[in-house]
Design goal:
By secondary structure, the chain is of the alpha+beta class. The chain is 46% helix and 16% strand. Strands 10, 11, 12, 15, 16, 17, 18, 19, 20 and 21 form a 10-stranded mixed beta sheet that branches. Strands 8-27-26-25-9-22-24-23 form an 8-stranded mixed beta sheet, with helices on both faces. Helix 5 packs parallel to helix 11, helix 11 runs parallel beside helix 28 and helix 29 runs antiparallel to helix 30. The longest helix has 37 residues.
């Protein structure tokens, strides 16, 4: 029998699941398992491969600027062959194109490692019942219908329906975003439309057993599992081009169009003036090379790489270069809650004991004003007096707080460690708060050995232990009578036991008939019971997880029952926010960035954390994942525009939220740490994963990895991204202003003849433009970057006056050089070499001026020593080219006299003076 492909297994009873899967309690036979394996295939994740290395390399030549340069190289080589000369220009151009393509290939040839990480997650060994006996088989051999046994520490090898469970709790945070262990129990069946995060009778591939044990039947394997669905989403997610990629593509198209137009105009003008065809063709090549900024792709790539190094120093590892600038354009940060905004651990934040609310503090060290005072005091804890219930004495009785903390240690299965413990995070938090009070968990457990226990079960919602209390120390706080109640009888001696219980407040209160107020034990009448339930409801409404504790002396074990206990109090826990997050959220808002929480956790918890960190105002609307189902795309887009809190969200819905934000024009960063975050991480313009707590899948799907898991680091990365974009605009202004001057110089050819060869233009664009342009990236950042709004994604790179400035600078530059050429030609000087030298020296002065928005004479040279060094180095190289004979011959220049060189320097200084006036006028 072949099992059905798609069934709502959570809606069926265990026996019905077995019937539909065609399996008995003895498990599948070997032949039946082989038949099913042949039909369903191995229990592995199979995905199409990503682009190969050759495809990635060929994609580098899709840039229209590089294609134009290749065409120029081909024509130049043909002309050299006709003249029986060495194709120097063609060789230089091909070297530049090859270097640019190599840089892009090295940055973009990363494989889809996220898919390999998914495969690693899917290969645990499994205990399987086959042919009536239990066997250990590789996970990829499992088929639907296999019976599997799971214990604490096991990886779940496939999706399964639970048949039997004993205190079974699973860690599903990587799949669902739920921070706490999720209790699993086989019955009753659930509704067919129950969300994945609430399917407490189902187990999922890629999760782990945190406690207990269970028996389950496999319902899905491989790509049919929930994890397989996420793997498919990762592959089908199509990242949109970053704003930088869009702007550079637009720039490339414009430059190529301008180049072709100018080439046509210059050639047409020369033809009308009677120019020779070969001379016109050489002029066309020079024009094309002049307008294309050959060094710009390499300069941008290197500047992005420099930005990545700066970000690494600020704990943000960049895995995809365009993401550097894209960070600066971010308008929305969609962030997971668990492990991103919070610490991904449970911390006791409040205790209710007697009629006091005690706040021990939060954080790794429970930052408070002091240590808990031994003997039941509460010095060093912030205490808030509560209005007591009728007939109760305010305060807490001696020893009652100590007993509450001891109950948290003794009614607890977590293993103590030097710092905290190991086990269920809820129970580890109880050990940590007790340790802060000075209680030694190991010593306390040695003194009070456990005799009997009732483990936690979801149906009874409590745990109980019977401990030895020979000296009566544990029950001492119960011996302070109030309102005439009798004290505890300790005549049992070594046989005396104490029962400690913890669990849901309703379950514990149901078994209590007394409690401890400020004077001691008091009857728990209905009015006081209602008071305690109101306290519990108030804490739960704040998104806190609650445990109630009770105690009672016993002479026998579980057969004596669980009733007649004394209520000790409540402990409230939560996964606390990271301490740096509120300031980071505030900084985001000042920078015009909207933070949005997208979590799989409970709505109350999401609201509590969001309000604590300032992400949302009290009472802000919160949307749950199921509400997104059935909505049209336009409705989702409208919803994400007005909502900043999303809870109970599954991976498909996270992906849909990111796509909806992108459809509204937002530039989206998505942060996360779990497998469930990976599809949205890949879809977003910038995916940001946690480096310490994050899963391999999320890290490999992301563009940025935070090395310290610090949400504030992404804000620092945004600042660096904005600086990179500011630098790129500075490059474009510098390089294109210079190139326009070169174009005007070349366009004067009909007057005097060809001023520059393609090889000389390449020298200018790469040496006297390229080196200083790289140094511009190392300048100090602007001080007000994070007080400015994000750059509009649709904004042209020439916006905000940049295009006009380039035009003015190019026209002035070209006019000065042409004027120098005309005068030099009339005086019989080497006007071509003088034009070449002036272009080089003037551009070096332009680089110094572009290094700061302040006046050049007010800028300290030490502000950017790299720029000063690059300018001096480029000037030295230019002088070597003029006066070293082999270089001068290769580049076709003539050594200049001192007066000729001074004339070139004077015109360059005049150009720099204009640049400073332009800067002053802009301010």
């Amino acid at each position: 029998m072949i099992p059905p492909e798609a069934t709502d297994w959570q809606a069926l009873s265990g026996s019905e699941c077995l019937r539909r899967l065609g399996v008995e309690r003895e498990g599948l036979g070997g032949a039946a398992a082989a038949e099913r394996l042949a039909t369903t295939g191995p229990n592995r994740l199979h995905l199409p491969p990503g682009p190969g290395r050759w495809r990635i390399l060929l994609d580098q030549f899709s840039n229209v600027m590089l294609l134009l340069l290749l065409a120029v190289a081909a024509v130049s080589a043909a002309l050299a062959v006709v003249d029986h000369a060495v194709p120097k220009d063609a060789i230089a151009i091909l070297l530049i194109v090859g270097l640019t393509a190599l840089l892009g290939y090295l940055q973009e040839s990363r494989a889809l490692l996220a898919l390999r990480s998914l495969l690693d997650l899917a290969q645990p060994l499994a205990r399987v019942r086959r042919d009536g006996s239990w066997q250990r088989l590789p996970g990829d051999q499992l088929v639907p219908g296999d019976l599997i046994r799971l214990e604490s520490g096991d990886q779940v090898p496939a999706d399964a329906r639970l048949l039997e469970g004993s205190d079974l709790g699973l860690q599903e945070s990587a799949l669902t975003g739920e921070a706490d262990l999720v209790s699993k129990h086989p019955e009753p069946p659930l509704a067919a439309d129950t969300p994945l995060v609430e399917r407490c009778n189902c187990l999922f591939l890629g999760t782990a057993v945190g406690r207990g044990r269970g028996l389950a039947v496999v319902t899905a394997t491989g790509m049919a599992t929930a994890l397989g669905g996420i793997a498919t989403l990762i592959h089908t997610a199509r990242p949109e081009p970053t704003p930088l990629q869009q702007r550079l593509a637009d720039l490339s198209r414009r430059l190529v169009a301008w180049a072709l137009g100018l080439v046509a105009g210059v050639v047409l003008g020369g033809w009308l003036l009677g120019g020779a065809p070969l001379e016109l063709l050489e002029l066309a090549l020079s024009t094309a090379v002049a307008i294309v900024p050959e060094g710009l792709p390499a300069v941008i790539t290197v500047s992005l790489a420099i930005g990545t190094q700066r970000m690494v120093r600020r704990a943000a590892l960049i895995r995809h270069l365009p993401a550097v600038e894209a960070l600066g354009a971010i308008t929305v940060i969609c962030t997971d809650k668990t492990g991103t905004l919070t610490q991904n651990r449970q911390v006791v934040t409040e205790l209710r004991c007697g009629t006091l609310a005690l706040h021990p503090g939060e954080g790794d060290e429970y930052e408070g004003e002091g240590e808990l005072e031994a003997g039941g005091g509460h010095h060093g804890w912030r205490a808030v007096a509560l209005a007591p219930p009728p007939e109760a004495v305010a305060g807490i009785s001696p020893g009652s707080l100590d007993l509450l903390l001891q109950a948290g240690v003794l009614c607890n299965d977590a293993e103590p460690r030097q710092r905290g413990g190991m086990g269920d995070p809820t129970e580890v938090a109880l050990l940590e708060i007790a340790a802060r009070a000075g209680l030694e968990a190991a010593s306390l457990r040695a003194q009070h050995g456990r005799v009997h226990e009732i483990p936690f079960r979801s149906e009874q919602r409590m745990m109980a232990v019977w401990l030895r209390d020979a000296d009566g120390r544990l029950t001492a706080p119960l011996g302070h009578p109030s309102a005439g109640l009798p004290t505890v009888d300790r005549s049992l001696g070594e046989d005396s036991l104490v029962l400690l219980a913890k669990g849901a407040p309703e379950a514990i209160l149901h078994r209590c008939d007394r409690w401890l107020d400020g004077a001691g034990m008091r009857p728990l009448d209905q009015a006081q019971r209602d008071w305690w339930l109101a306290q519990a409801r108030g804490l739960a409404a704040s998104g806190l997880r609650l445990l109630a504790f009770a105690a009672g002396p016993r002479s026998r074990g579980p057969e004596a029952g669980l009733e007649g206990l004394v209520l000790l109090g409540l402990m409230a826990q939560r996964d606390p926010p990271r301490p740096e997050v509120p300031a980071a959220v505030a900084r985001c808002r000042r920078a015009g960035i909207r933070p949005v929480m997208v979590t799989g956790d409970h709505p109350l918890t999401a609201r509590s954390i969001s309000e604590a960190i300032g992400l949302a105002e009290p009472g802000s609307p919160i949307v749950q994942g199921p509400e997104l189902e059935g909505l049209e795309a336009a409705a989702v887009e409208a919803l994400v525009g007005r909502t900043s809190l999303f809870a109970r969200v599954v991976p498909e819905q996270k992906l849909r939220i990111v796509r909806a934000l992108q459809a509204t024009g937002a530039v989206v960063a998505m942060t996360g740490d779990g497998v469930n975050d990976a599809p949205a991480l890949r879809q977003a313009h910038v995916g940001v994963a946690m480096g310490i707590s994050g899963s391999d899948v999320s890290r490999e799907a992301a563009d940025v990895v935070l090395l310290d898991d610090n949400f504030a680091s992404i804000v620092n990365a945004v600042e660096e991204g904005r600086q990179v974009y500011a630098n790129i605009r500075r490059f474009v202004r510098f390089i294109l202003g210079c190139n326009l001057g070169e174009l005007i110089t070349i366009s004067s050819a009909p007057l005097l003849g060809l001023a520059l060869t393609p090889l000389q233009i390449l020298w200018i664009n790469l040496v006297t433009d390229g080196l200083p342009a790289l140094a511009l990236a190392l300048g100090p950042p602007a001080e007000d970057l994070m007080r400015q709004p994000p750059i509009e994604p649709s904004e042209s790179i020439f916006a905000r006056g940049l295009g006009g400035a380039i035009l003015r600078i190019g026209l002035v530059f070209g006019a000065l050089v042409v004027a120098l050429m005309v005068v030099a030609a009339q005086l019989g000087r080497p006007w071509q070499t003088m034009a070449f030298t002036t272009l080089c020296l003037a551009q070096l002065g332009h680089a110094l001026s572009a290094g700061s928005d302040r006046a050049l004479w007010r800028t300290a040279p030490a502000a950017n020593p790299w720029l000063l060094g690059a300018v001096l180095a480029s000037a030295a190289l230019q002088l070597m080219l003029l006066y070293v004979a082999p270089l001068a011959h290769f580049f076709g220049v003539t050594p200049l006299t001192a007066s000729e060189l001074a004339a070139c320097g004077g015109v360059s200084l005049l150009f720099v003076t204009y640049l400073e006036l332009e800067k002053w006028w802009s301010r």
